[in-house]
Amino acid sequence: METNDTRMEFTNNKGVEDDSEFRDFEGTDVKDMRLEAKAVVNALFAVSIMFASKSLPCAEDVAYSNVGNRERNRYCLKLTEARFRVAGCAFNQVDDSVQNSYHGTVYSLLESVSPVYREALGNALLQRVEAVKRDGQS
């Protein structure tokens, strides 16, 4: 089955592809949701898979990303300026009957739907604090 999605597996945050189709927007003053979707995909950890949808409408004011969490749930996320929400419970699927709140960050949204993500984030923060303490003692 052929898809129109660019999938990126997240293991060690390595191997994130450079997407040349976004280069035309670099350096512009307009906040383009296509760039936001790309930034979200590049910034995440502790999810199984996340990729920007190429089959759903994408414009300056809205974009969609798909995420699979460690609990093996799939979500389609709607990204609007400074707000994120679950738009559907399957990749590339928007379901208007899904009622959920908007989140200010994708991290907050993932914390709300994934206890494993929340735990991984807490562990990462704890490791960072411990590293800062060690560096401060040397």
Task: Write out key terms for the chains shown.
copper amine oxidase-like fold; alpha+beta; 4 strands; 3 helices
CATH homologous superfamily assignment: Hypothetical protein (hspc210)
Number of domain units: 1
What is the top-level CATH class? Answer: Alpha Beta
Number of strands: 4
Averaging pLDDT over every residue, what do you get? 75
What would you call the structural class? alpha+beta
* Share of residues in strands: 15-25%
Helix content: 25-40%
The value of Rg in angstroms is 16 Å
How many H/I helices? 3
Strand order in the sheet with the most strands: 1-2-3-4
Kindly report the oligomeric state of this protein: single chain
Intertermini distance:
55 Å
* Inertia-based shape: elongated
N-to-C SSE string, H for helix and E for strand: HEEEEHH
**Which fold name fills CATH's third level, the topology?**
copper amine oxidase-like fold
Unreliable stretches covering 5 or more consecutive residues? 1-30
- Corresponding CATH architecture: 2-Layer Sandwich
The major sheet is characterized as: 4 strands, antiparallel
GO biological process, one term: regulation of canonical Wnt signaling pathway
Family: Belongs to the GSKIP family.
InterPro entries: GSKIP, GSKIP_dom, GSKIP_dom_sf
Domain GSKIP: 34-131
